[in-house]
Amino acid sequence: MAGLEQVPQHHVVPHDVVLPDTQRRIAEALSPNTERAYRRVAADFDAWCRSNDRAPLPCSPATLADYVAHLCDEGKAPKSIQQAIAAISTLHRRAGHPKGTPDSQAALLVLRGHKKALAAAGKGNKQAPPITVSVLQKMVARTPADTLAGKRDRLVLVLGMALAGRRSELAALDIDDVQPDGDGGIDILIRASKTDQDAVGEVVNVPAGANPDTNAVQLLHDYLAALAERGVTSGRLLRAVSKLDKLFRYERLSGAAINEIVRRAAVRTQLPNAAQYTAHSLRAGFATQAALDGVPLGHWARHGRWNPTSPVPHGYVRAAEKKTHNPLKKMGL
């Protein structure tokens, strides 16, 4: 072809293969948690393909469907299987394959059957119970206020709800991310989130609370003062604390540790099914409380950084309306 020099065949790179340096740049664009999840899925899928004489990349729709059936047989949760399907699809796109490779229609039908079987057996998907304001107040009241760990845990509980925070967002906070807003409240910078993959960042305003036990501004002040007494005035906000209430100076709380803080508080408060409570209970509680209180969906969804096209916020509204607009309330039963 005119204008193009003929390249010897052995120097030609396939048009659908992404070079190693490009793969590295793609990986760096993802959050560390997402990248770890993709690596885990890739390793598991590759091992299964090798043991079953299948090609992992690109894989056929039949291979993906069979792998999903394998995950179902292993008793994996539907959400985990859905994430595996999405990760495998993303790994294909990262490798330069067209969007929609592999076709996941058959795999999703296998997953649907798995969900139906679990539901029929009474093992359907169990959501983390929401922590509404009244429940949050009880949990904070049962959390010690005179220890470093207690001050941190009280802040985790209240900030988790006030920010509608994902556990990854809470774990990523630095002290400098929290600033006074000039009106008695605080502005908190969320550097990146699930719906902000470009890490543009978003500032969330948290006003002072009316209840002393759930006033995020005062709880933050108490916790920062305790850190300052130990010589810490910058760096990570939520830190690991030993059983002797000693600070692990260089350790940031993990998402799993934040889950455990919420679970322990639920156990202390003797909540029903306490073991089911997680950090997501705080985020779900924010949405549930806002929906029950009639706050416009657009306002609280924006505050909580929900994707406006997601069906999730509407699900909280429908659940709340089952109580607020229950027709039985007008029937005199």
From TrEMBL:
PROSITE patterns: CB, TYR_RECOMBINASE. Keywords: DNA integration, DNA recombination, DNA-binding. Residues 21-96 form the Core-binding (CB) domain. Residues 126-329 form the Tyr recombinase domain. The keyword DNA-binding applies. SUPFAM superfamilies: DNA breaking-rejoining enzymes, lambda integrase-like, N-terminal domain. InterPro entries: CB, DNA_brk_join_enz, Integrase-like_cat_sf, Integrase_catalytic, Integrase_recombinase_N, Integrase_SAM-like_N, Phage_Integrase-like_Recomb. GO terms for molecular function: DNA binding. GO terms for biological process: DNA integration; DNA recombination. This is Integrase.
